[in-house]
Amino acid sequence: MTAEILYCGDPHGVFEQINQAAIRRSPDAMVLLGDFELDRPLHEAVAAARSASEIWWIAGNHDSGSVTQFDALYASALAGHDLHGRVVDIAGVRHAGLGGHFQGRIWWGQKPAREARFATRAAFLERCGKGNIWRGGLPLGRRLAIFPEDIEALAGLRTDVLVCHEAPSSHRHGFGVIDELARTMGASLIVHGHQHEDYTARLPGGIEVLGVGLAGVACPRAGFIVPGRTSRTREPARP
């Protein structure tokens, strides 16, 4: 990877490290890994970073906790830069996005897709009851669930990097289905957040993994530029 692309771990309301890293390094692009917990639109929270770099993102499990948080992402000026479910050329590197998280009432990703309670959103909507419909679709709490159809849609595409909120099997709480998706898509790197740990690993077959910690900023080439925090109350490290 010749371009400098920075990957930003779960902010949980802290954006200073993202903005400072962008200003100081002027990277080709930044990819945000979810769990924003926004109280304002995303484009406002990362305004300084946006002035210095291209910004892309995926959602995490904490981004549909309220209508305010949900709309701060999906009604922001950066709404069109959601990577989920597609492949985008970012600074000359193909990135695929798998946002959201596994939910046991829909599909716990450690089970084969054929054992999912609901393989598609349409199947869930048929059973959830009209009173649970929100804005003509899934209930708010299910909007960021991963369905088997998400994996199937990406599996037919090719990518260099798979960006996801959930972890692959390199993490003790990860999912082998993400490993398999990366292999199927031809990815050489998986980058994830969610687990709040900085680490690198290599899966069988040679796929590299970069886990980015809580409010951390990392680059495959430069390492952990801002180490992830160990708690939500400590100030982020400086880039």
From TrEMBL:
Top-level taxon of origin: Bacteria
InterPro entries (UniProt xref): Calcineurin-like_PHP, Metallo-depent_PP-like
Entries under Pfam families matching the protein: Metallophos (PF00149)
Calcineurin-like phosphoesterase domain residues: 5-197
GO MF terms, alphabetically ordered: hydrolase activity
Protein name as catalogued: Phosphodiesterase
Species in which this protein is naturally found: Natronocella acetinitrilica
